[in-house]
Amino acid sequence: MALELVSKALTIKNENGLHVRPAGALVSICRPFDADVKLKFNEIEYNLKSVLGIVSAGIKSGDAVEFICIGAEAAEALEAIVEAVESGLLDVQ
Q1: pTM, two decimal places
Q2: Are 54 and 20 in contact (CB under 8 A)?
Q3: pLDDT tens, 45-93?
Q4: What is the DSSP-derived secondary structure letter of residue 11?
Q5: Residues of the chain by 3-state class (helix, strand, coil), percent to 5
Q6: Which residues are part of the catalytic machinery?
Q7: What is the distance in angstroms between the CA of the first residue and the CA of the last residue of the chain?
Q8: Residue 49 main-chain phi, psi, to 5 deg
Q9: CB atoms within 10 A of CB 42
Q10: Which of 4, 16, 18, 51 is the most buried (most CB within 10 A)?
Q11: SS3 state of residue 80
């Protein structure tokens, strides 16, 4: 069985970008899925199951990023990520 690959580009709307708290929320969303989940920013891919990886990207409000998921639960993982980012659940101060 081939691994599923899905991706979606989004603009980060969080006022303070992806700092430690929203990065932690994003990691909590991604960890349960059987998928390799990454965030691509400025042509570099970051592990979405690592708070340090996300924070090290230095993503600010208004930055465009691409979420990439590969694996058995790739579509489900991407759906959860998109819902969280678009609903503002990650806008934690």
Answers
A1: 0.90
A2: no
A3: 999 999 999 999 999 999 999 999 999 999 999 999 999 998 876 564 4
A4: E
A5: 35, 30, 40
A6: 19
A7: 42
A8: -105, 15
A9: 10
A10: 18
A11: helix
